[in-house]
Amino acid sequence: HDPRPRERGELALPGWRRVKLFGTSSESFEETRDYEFMDSARKRLRSLAREGDPWCLFLGLTGPHGPFVIPESYARRYDPADVVLPVNYNDDMRDRPGYYGRLQRKYAQLAPDEAREAVAHYWGYCDMMDDLLGLMLEELDATGQADDTLVIYASDHGEFSAEHGLFAKGIAPFDGAYRVPYVFRWPNGISAPGRCEDAFITHCELSPTLTELAGAEPTADPSGRSLAPFLRGEHPADWPDAFYNQCNGVEILYTQRMVRTKKWKLVYNPVDRDELYDLENDPHEMHNLVDRPDLQPVVRDLFIKLWTKAHAERDAMSGYETVSLAPYGPALALGRDD
Questions:
Q1: 77: number of CA atoms within 13 Å, CB side?
Q2: N or C end: fewer C-beta atoms under 10 angstroms in the chain?
Q3: Residues 330, 311: contact at Cβ < 8 Å?
């Protein structure tokens, strides 16, 4: 236990180690770990250009993951006083699973001005990542490889950034943690560049996309689909109309399943309260409608979609009476009520 008073940008709970949420580093941009990593990648790009063979290079940078401890030039880029906190910053979470409120209370020790400063540091961190990407794009230009190289800029998850009073990520299935854009750059391979496509995609699409573009044999029964049609300016008529998520916990065991359409998001929490959000009328996910009697047909239809996907992905769910807790079970996906 650390008896010191909590420092600004720090999370402190009795008996737990202190967690740094944000701060300013004494390092310069060129001294950061991610810069050193990107610099080694630039050297590798030069050797790949000399070799002349097709190649694939994966760069897994640490940022902008927490803690948001960044060089002063980036930490000062945004004035916290100009940061407008999300409209759901004060979400009371009373109609959500207890875990969400428990996590929210951990971050409640941050005063609003401290939350604004945390968001400003996160934005500065994102700018630093953009600058690092710029170094790689400059290297592709300098080595004459830019026009024929597909660059995909993405992340494994998002950041709540004070949405619902939360930071980081976790079990909570709000869009802030799950909705991550994919940015593609390929001068000689993308039709009508500059487009923004609004479609449900997941990281499962990455493997079949690269496999098709490389002219390789596809793997058997992939979970995702190739994004190559979108690069050609096409939009497949049968593209999925929903996004699904399977969560089995982050360092704690917590089973959760989710299905999200353009209008609805249903979250199945076997050990706590389920969730239903009307994303058209409640885009900030503040009102859980799962218990409304008039919306039970919606809940039922979404559970059927969820179970249909679970069956296709061989996501086994036990039928034992103490764990079969969803109000509408997987047999409905097979057209049965038993």
A1: 16
A2: C
A3: yes
Q: What is the pTM of this model?
A: 0.94
Residue with tokens 């630039």: 42
Burial class (CB in 10 A: 0-12, 13-18, 19+), 29: middle
Report the SS3 class of residue 58: coil
Confidence of residue 1 (pLDDT cuts 50, 70, 90): low
* HSE toward the beta carbon, residue 259, CA cutoff 13 A: 17
Above 90 in pLDDT, residue 251?
A: no
Residue length of the chain: 338
For CA atoms 277, 164, 64, 283, give the dihedral sign: positive
Q: Could you read off the pLDDT of 133-147 as tens digits, one per residue?
A: 999 999 999 999 999
* Residues 6+ positions from 231 with CB-CB distance below 8 Å: 184, 186, 189, 190, 191
Three-class SS state of 213 = helix
Q: At what angle do helices 33-51 and 112-142 cross, to 10 degrees?
A: 20
